[in-house]
Amino acid sequence: MQISPAKENILKRIRQALVNPTPVPFPQSEGNSSVFAPQKQENEIEFAENFGLIQGRFLYCSNIGEMIQQLQQLISRQGWAQVFCRESGLLALLQEPLKGLLIADELPEADVSITGCEALVARTGSILMSSGQESGRTVSVYAPVHICIAYADQLVYDIRDGLDMLTEKYKNKIPSFITLATGPSRTADIEKTLVVGVHGPKDVYVFLVDAQ
Predict the structure, then answer these.
(1) Is the pTM of this model over 0.85?
(2) CA atoms within 13 A on the CB side of 53
(3) Residue 178 maps to which CATH number?
(4) What residue ranges of the chain have pLDDT lower than 50?
(5) Cβ proximity of 135 and 110 under 8 Å
(6) Residue 90 maps to a domain
């Protein structure tokens, strides 16, 4: 079978390319290296600064007792009457301090929802969550205010580190839904004007507990 000159020309160029492969244009973006600037400060500071830049509200707590105290003060100051939470670990901590306020079956009625998280990502100020949590998919986005309670050992620098943490935790049973919440919800769909709190909570708080 005779090969046409045009096809022979293409095959010739392919053979030449295999002999002399084209170098990778950005070798630093391949493998385990990062294209982002290296970390310059502690994760706690990095997260607090980046979370604040996206209108998140960050509260540092040295221990669980301080977290509960600050949470009580925040709820009282804001006048919230219905606090939704369905995570058993958090319920065990908050049932007595928030007695009369906690609900676990009427999310549409809630003023604020409280969840944990899978990780906090310092470089982007993001909260990493999944459907593997007891809160499921809706709790963090349905109420007008979302409070996330996290611990220091959940704080990582980059998204890759958070995904590695998920893989280590769930092994071969990775949750079907993984999301990164980066500050309050926002959209500019309406007349290109940025509006906060349209498709999710208008305020997001993170309580970072240093010691359990």
Answers:
(1) no
(2) 11
(3) 3.40.50.10420
(4) 197
(5) no
(6) yes
